[in-house]
Protein 1
Amino acid sequence: MQIFAYVTLVTNADYVLGATALARSLLATGTTADLVVMHTGGVDDSHLESLKALGAKLHRADLLPTSDAFNARHQRAKIHAENPFTKGRKPDFHTPLDNFAKLRLWQLEQYDRVVFIDADAIVVRNIDRLFFYPEFSAAPNVYETLADFHRLNSGVFVATPSRETFDAMLARLDAPDAHWPRTDQTFLQSYFPDWHGLPVFFNMLQYVWFTMPELWDWKSVHVVHYQYEKPWERDHPKAAQLQPLIDLWRSCLDGAMPDVDSLENPSVAR
């Protein structure tokens, strides 16, 4: 019998809040897979009690033992200055270097297959079928134009834990002068150049709501990913445009998942 798990990563108290909404949304889908919350030293143990109460298995995931030179190249100020986010705003609590800690999921060899989901996402219908997709499966990074289909988004992906894979990743990650402008996302696409494309509906980026409303169909959407601004931020710059999705996230946080099939698509609302 194969053993499966959904895995997420929290690096501070903000992402604990996000992971709580994610956990409640997963429970609402009726999944029987484990939920593993990897957490770094940036999270106080007391902040994790709410996740533990939901049945999540807590797993300490320290930041990777990368070199000082690597860390300097991937500091927030430097990486954002060299590769600015021109389409949206990353919140102040976002720390690019922390993103690489998600690679530690390949150390979870007690599981045959895992599905990683960023803590700023919610699952609105059962996605257990993803455990039977190959490594490495991910949805495209589509949120503005169809030209984005050639890039993956690492907010949702399917992986097979393996210490051997993890060690090989670490060696390539911190090679001399290695630079990953979009951190783990750039690295994973480089490491898995023949990645298997999931339907975009398994990682629907929130900006699609107003950039390509015709692509959004609630009867197909499985995962909503709140890239850039987060739904728990007060009065963020895109709040008015994204209010229906913010309301959905808050419902998940409260444990009151609505019937998404009955929700109005943005193309109709306009």
Protein 2
Amino acid sequence: MKRQTMRRALARTVTGLGLALALATGGLLTATGAHAQPVTEGTVSFSGDSGDYISGGRSYSYSAGTDQIQVNGSAARGLVDVSVSGANGDWWSLSLAAPQGQQLQAGTYEGATRFPFNGSNAPGLNHDGNGRGCNTLTGAFTISKITWGPNGYVEALDAAYEQHCEGGEPALRGQVHIKNPAAPAELSLGVGVAVEGKASALNGKATVHGKVTCNKPVQVDVSGLVTQVKRNILIRGSYSTTVKCVPGAPAAWSAEADPTGTTPFQAGDVEVKATATAVDSDYQVTVTASDVAAVHLTRVKR
């Protein structure tokens, strides 16, 4: 009996260390994709048998509005993380994962092992928090409803799960119900290069310009390369600028390209490559658009 108690204490110590390392590194228990979404309507509830290490044999219940509930789905739709910050100071994390390479969908997932160490053949499950976690676990979960938006956005989730720590019989059983607003539109960018530009006789720089378009307000970085060949000499220069874009009103951009060598840009034709880059704040992903155009430079004295 004493030996079993020591083993349990050791397992819990190792578990606590592993949990602390996971939280310190910030990567093991979170989905890759959209940033965490606050849940506007939903509940998380669970209870454990006597002897369940995570729950301590108690029951817990949390509701959006009173408590903070967040959900985070992976862009590949294979993983959902749910986190709870209770008004009473409790904190919990739940991960439900399909076997690697598969998408989470309605159905029952048997033979789950601890996420993120479940591998390619088994689904992943992990419920921990309040300083307690399983070192190893077995379990299963059933998803009765899941509705995905772009970039891992979770519109709805109804799931039930059962978890056993360290191969023991005591179980933790829980349910999660989430209903969020419809997913925001993804950011759409467009960039164009005007077919005329200027070559300065004063400093040798080329001035190019164009327009960017967007479907929601965003700050856009425009960068690119100007290339010209004159008398078998290759002339190149890069440029960059930043503009604010709002829907329905193309934003004009203009930038100077400084030649990298000693030969200045000259009147004549050049190739202009442009790339527009912006962050979609709804999904925390970077969106790009590009264009290539033949541009005629006119010589100016300034």
Protein 3
Amino acid sequence: MGRLEIRHLRALCAIADTGSLRRAAVSQGYSQPAMTTQLQRIEQYFGEPLFERSTAGVEPTPFGAEVVAQAREVVARVEAMGPRGTRPAAGAGRVLTLAVTNTPMLPGLLARFRGAAPDHAVTVTSVYSSAQIVGMLEDGDVDVALAVDYPGQELRHSPAVAHRGIVTEPSFVAMSAGHPLAHRMEVDLTELADGAWFVTPDDGAGWPGVFYTACQVAGFQPATVHEFLGDRGQLQSMIADGLGVGVVQATFAATEDVVVKPLTGTPLWCRYLLAWRVGAVCDELVDALYRSAVAAYRELTASAPHLRDWAARTYNTLPK
């Protein structure tokens, strides 16, 4: 196969979503042998298997999960570029408005929700502050949202808004592969006391207060803090150059130049949650959104070996 095409990316997403070559073939209008042949050619293109086969179906390999995640982004962008006539008109059906904080779950959630509720279009607004997201829900500016909070500082909102936790994950630290502690299985917060930190700004839900509290409990105050809210690639580059370390999401992608390590004792946690305006979204759609988010998160864990290893040591399972 000389090059990848959109149909190949759609096929990969369908296989990952259904967990079955047969079901993926049906959803894409292929025969099962044709889908199998297409997958073999795609895997030949990448030079290694993208899915593990078993009697229960297929699951992405760690590398396959990375490829699928990128495929979802490309497919979503291509579909968003469709001609005006293919876009939902104002009165042509239900359009859900979704506000989303900084989370890599978004592409996988949207892809799965599109399959679960094909009659419902979604428009997305990126909003960093979870407090602002709550305000948008209460004011009726959006219908649903992905937000964050922290243990002991659960998200506050009026009875007009309801929420449901998706996953509570530990916060890890990203550092240069050349950092003196990069070889360690986990890193104690106190060992980073004298270094520089990249810290995202106030999110209205408790961050970065929980970070500074954890440092205080550990007996120090960070000497140098760079407040940063920008492109993940930029952050990776600065960390790779040794300009500082950063508290990151547990699914933050490691590279050859950046390693991601658990913090000893897990002093920092973050919860992702689905919130919605009561009466604006029916229970069936809430369930579909929730299931889509959970499945998207579990796909992310497949490409985050540092999270999988931590979970295996801590719980002997993956985080729920």
Protein 4
Amino acid sequence: MVNIKELNPGSSPRAAFGARIRKYRTDRGWSQDVLAPKIGYSSQHISAVETVRKPPTLRFARNSDQAFGTTGTADSFEREFAELRNGSLKEGFPEYVGYEGRAVEIRLFDVGLIPGLLQTPDYARAVAYGSVERGAITYEQADERVAFLEERQEALVRSQPPMVFVVMDESCLHQAVGGWEVMSAQLRRLEEMAARPNWIIQVAPFSLGARRAFYLPVNLLTMADRSIIAYAESQAQGYVERQTSVVAPMFTTYHQMQGESLSKAASVAKISKLRKGTP
């Protein structure tokens, strides 16, 4: 006899999601093997989502809606997934990501940590688990953040990908995250991404000193109609800004900082030296 794990939907949003998948499946008399081809996931993957061993993804939620006939309804799995995912993100960030996936140009500046769109899964996990250790979020929320980041990265892989301009404060390269192996793989990832034709990666060196233009991370998106959207975060929340009088000066300042940063070639050379441990 198969040992079916008891579920506790009230223990967490992910547990509630998994329990609903199981209920909808069993109400129809479907086993996990029957549901698997209907949503394009293995029965093992479905089991892991139901028992909270794996977080659901947007694709999993949408495919489940198609299988169960709940697409576009108030009870859709996509809606539940959005609520689950956004609960672990700062206010304003989900709105920003909606624009990010449609932008034709993306400009990023970061301090201390490698920008999310460039993070390896291991680096992203180390950052998220650091928040868990501080008591800021749960392990469940950390896993949701990593899964969400992977979706953002996948959204940029399309037939006409956006141009992505990245300026990283030099501190991003020296902040030890996850140990030597994780950092080495992360630095290699930067080298690989910089070789792509639609990515321009530059390092703002420590020597800029007071001339460094921004002291908090800044994201700037250029949309297809050439409008520009800015996103910035405080310690508590994020803000999406569309007002031209506010965004235009940030756009100009970003370009000024690009001009003072190391060239793409010099930046890649610095990254490569750090990865190899050479002076």
